[in-house]
Amino acid sequence: MQSVILKTATHLMVGLMLVFAVYVLLRGHHEPGGGFSAALLAGTAFALFAITEGADQVRRAIRIRPAAMAMTGLAMAVVSGLPALFTGRPFLTGIWRHLNGFSVGTPLLFDMGVFLAVLGAILSILLALEEN
Amino acid sequence: MKPPLPNIENPPACCRGGLFSSILPLVLFGFLCLAWPRVVQGDIFAVQWAWVPSLDLDLAFRLDGLGLLFSLIITMTGFFVTLYASTYMAGYPHLGRFFFYLHGFMLAMLGIVLADNLLLLFIFWEATTILSFLLIGFNHESTDARESARQALLVTGGGGLFLLMGILLIKAAGFPMGLSLLAASGDLIRSHVLYPAIFICILVGAMTKSAQVPFHFWLPNAMTAPTPISAFLHAATMVKAGIYLLLRLHPAMAGTPLWTGTLVIIGGITALWGAIQALGPCDLKRVLAYTTLMALGVLTLFAGGQTVLSLTAAATFLMVHALYKAALFLAVGSIDHQTGTRDLEHLEGLLKCMPLTALAVAGATLSMAGFPLFFGFIGKEIMYEGALAQEMFPVFATIATLMSNALMTAVAAVILITPFAGPPGGKLSLVCEAPWTMRLGPAIMGTLGIIFGIMPEWVSANLVQPAVFSIHPDREDIRLVFFHGINLPLLLSILTLALGSLIYRHRILLRYRVETFMQRLWITTPVLYQRALEAFLSLAGSFTGKIQNGSLHFYLFVTIFTMVVAVGWPWIFHIPAALVLPETVGPLIAFGLFAFILASTGVVVTARKRLSAIGGLGGVGSGVALTFLVFGAPDIALTQLLVETLTVIFVSLVLLRLPPIDAVQKRSCSRTIRDACLSLGAGLVLTTVLMGVLQVPLDRSLTAFFENHAYLAAHGRNIVNVILVDFRSLDTLGEICVVVLAAWAAVTLIRRPKEG
């Protein structure tokens, strides 16, 4: 779409939206947010980008194929469930480590998996629609 | 049938992967040979692991005489076929796939003959069905290959279902699934009230797999597969699975008049039917396919018998047939490979150009015809002895065996004489011999035919006797000998050769008679199969056309209508209690949102342009999201808002490509009224149901649990997210799988098929 206003606004907004998506992803455990919302947010950003610059630019920007991204996400979600199995607990039980008052656990990896899977799904539909 | 196109250059091309993978069957064959002497002494190798104990399904394997006989045939043929295919298939695409299927098939076949558990046997049985489907349809770009593969799958797969029913009936009758245990409780099974039903189910399974009349038609059609596959599947192994099943269940189920009578009649008819039709076709592979039918019929006939003689005949002829049939298939494949045709009318005088192949074919056909000194002769003698000793219908059995053997002799003469005799004409004189990988199998198997024929005592002591002993309680010595003295079987053998030569002389007349007879038959099972398939497809087509007519409006109407009726109908009886407005009233802003949603709905309904309709929809969604926010559900509000945004983008990408609303044919007034009524009905039902829900006091115990445990157990303060990624993460995993799959489906639908 050829519109200077849209283009300029998009260039400013897309980066901000993506950073905000990462923020929403990471804050999800304590505040409203999480992998799914973050993926929707990032998907919207890319949709905006695709409308102004075309699907090719989006493909170039994300570097990997959307299907591969979705598969990576699913794989991450599955892998995040495995550590629990090694400690003899049910699949997908959260395992946490505490470092100086800062907690890191497998649910974070799981949430990132959700993010990538949903974003990959959105992008593959979006690009297919744009390219048709 | 195509005219000859000699393969003059004889390229040394060879699929190396295939060549090396022939080590697998060779190694297996070697291991079997190591176990062989112990099995002959009566030892049994058995291993067992529990798999699904609650279903009585164990990974139980057992190597006894019968299993050994079949395994030796399978691995030996497997080795020669792999070796052969590495040259024959060179240049085909997807060779890795081909050899994978081939070896997978061989292992599944070994699984059938070594399994000591009926359910396990059934699993391998189905594996051979599926792998044979893939192998027959290997040339998947040919319509013929696809249809033959589908036919084989439907017939043998359908029979497999019957077999499963039979197995489940055996289980329901309270018998163990272990085959060796089952054999011990034979008397109980035979006197059980379910015995006839079990017998019929197992019989149908075996008949479809082993191509017995009336389920025989898939076998000749399956000849569209590449020749190594035909040789492996349809000569030596897969079609023998049904015979194996009958033999294996012999101690458990045989001995009743039902068993003997049915098998003798069906086997006899199949043998005759196959043998008569073998004279008809010009395609050498089809000829061989019909002779396979004959062999399978004869084997079924002898599996029906209860005497040691009958079973000896079955085991001996099994070997005779495996040796000569695999050799012939491979040799015919060589002829096809070198000359470019396998049409009897185009082939002549190949003796000069392909002398070694001719020698192998001579060995195999003479065994097939049952000439003295060849193994086929021994097989024929014992067959006549067995047929004469049948408890039921001995006369029919003998006549069927005699006639089909005579026809076989004639067919053997056709196969030996027509392509090889005479001077080579035209392009055929340029033909050269096949490479060694393709000659080795036929040569060795042809030679074995004569070695076994000269030393039958060794064969009976080391192969036939262990096999028969493992399925028959009597321990009388089995000796195959070259010369029995002048008796009825010998006279019948001589009569066979005489009749055979007579038939060979009059084969053209006979072929004509058979053809006219076939045309007069008003219904045959292949035609029946074709009609049933067509009827089924057209029924499915019309059904799909009705319920999947492509109108989104129709789908939505049906979905919402069903929801309204299914929820609304039972709800009517409870409505009075529900129609009480909730007492708590939300903040003032909620009324503003309510008005906003209502206005947006109005925009959607009255919109004249698609863009305004989309905007209206977005307005409704955002209004709902803000409502969530007002009532204290920020997570849902956030997600809903984002979903609405994305939906508007996606929908506009799609809808903007459609013609403007005004251009579409104006909807009829009645349809608009009907849709409006449905929408109002759906709204009414949902609203009243929600009001009803609010009447019930809310159970907050779950909320309390999550509030208490979210931070302590899962280190998160956002309960919703903790539930999603921790407490119920398996649900989420399932959901993201669905999301990705749905996206894939959508992409497939969106992408236009590539041109051409």
Termini separation of chain A comes to: 15 Å
What value does the Rg of chain A take, in angstroms? 17 Å
**Helix/strand/pairing class of chain A, anyone?**
mainly alpha
How many E-type strands of chain B?
Answer: 2
Shape of chain A: elongated
Q: Report the strand count of chain A.
A: 2
Number of helices of chain A: 5
Outline the biggest β-sheet of chain A: 2 strands, antiparallel
Features:
heterodimer, A: 132 residues, mainly alpha, elongated, B: 756 residues, two-stranded antiparallel sheet, 72% helix, 2% strand
How would you characterize this protein structure?
The complex is a heterodimer of chains A (132) and B (756). Chain A has 132 residues and is mainly α. Chain A has one domain. Chain A has five helices and two strands. Chain A has a two-stranded antiparallel ribbon with strand order 1-2. In chain A, β1 (96-99) and β2 (102-105) form a beta hairpin. The two termini of chain A are 15 Å apart. In chain A, 42% of the residues are buried. The model of chain A has no long low-confidence stretch (mean pLDDT 89). Chain B is mainly alpha-helical. Chain B has helices at residues 16-21, 23-40, 65-88, 95-114, 118-136, 143-172, 179-184, 186-190, 195-209, 218-221, 227-236, 240-248, 250-253, 257-278, 284-304, 308-339, 355-369, 375-388, 394-420, 436-454, 456-469, 488-505, 507-520, 525-547, 552-572, 575-578, 588-606, 610-630, 634-655, 669-695, 701-714, 719-727, 729-750, and strands at residues 45-52, 57-63. Chain B is elongated and about 115 Å long. The model of chain B has no long low-confidence stretch (mean pLDDT 87). The A-B interface holds A 28-37, 40-41, 43-44, 47, 51, 67, 70-71, 73-74, 77-78, 81, 91-92, 94, 96, 103, 105, 107, 110-111, 113-114, 117-118, 120-122, 124-126, 128-130, 132 and B 634-635, 637-639, 642-643, 645-646, 649-650, 653-654, 714-718, 720-722, 724-726, 729-730, 732-733, 736-737, 739-740, 742-744, 746-747, 750-752.
